[in-house]
Amino acid sequence: MVSLDRIDVRILQELQQDSSLTNQELADRVGLSPSPCLRRVKALEDSGIVDRKVMLLKRSELGLKLTAFIQISMDRHTPDRFTVFEEQVNSFPEVRACNLVTGQNCDYLVEVVVEDMEKYHDFLLGKLTRIPGVSGVQSSFLLRSIKENTSLPLGHLL
């Protein structure tokens, strides 16, 4: 784990909220002058802490009105089965997240975003259930998002 001071943590908190901040805006928010702020950001990026910078889009404004959380069970727990599944799922643009889990009656939890139930049906039968090894699928659908956050908690670093 990389050693971070309070200013580094503050920089990361600010950038998690808005990575489009200019260096001057970021420097002002964390109480640094622009040059040291830029050096710290570069060092944080070089350290590997920063995975990537992205722009978050509103699903509903793009016609993506259906979110499904899918529990996937595999027929065999072998590395080759898991590798094939993960490679296939990674190629599907509808998949927002895929996690290998324990403690559930499934092997994977997958989040899928599509336009509507018809598109979900096409995705489920045309792609997901065609992956070798998928033996069970149970879907739940998002009614309303209560909290959706992309930021990681950093208070433990202070």
From TrEMBL:
Residues 4-65 form the HTH asnC-type domain. PANTHER family: LEUCINE-RESPONSIVE REGULATORY PROTEIN, TRANSCRIPTIONAL REGULATOR AZLB. PROSITE patterns: HTH_ASNC_1 (PS00519), HTH_ASNC_2 (PS50956). This is Lrp/AsnC family transcriptional regulator. Pfam families: AsnC_trans_reg, HTH_24. It comes from Marinomonas ostreistagni. Keywords: DNA-binding, Transcription, Transcription regulation. CDD domains: HTH_ARSR.
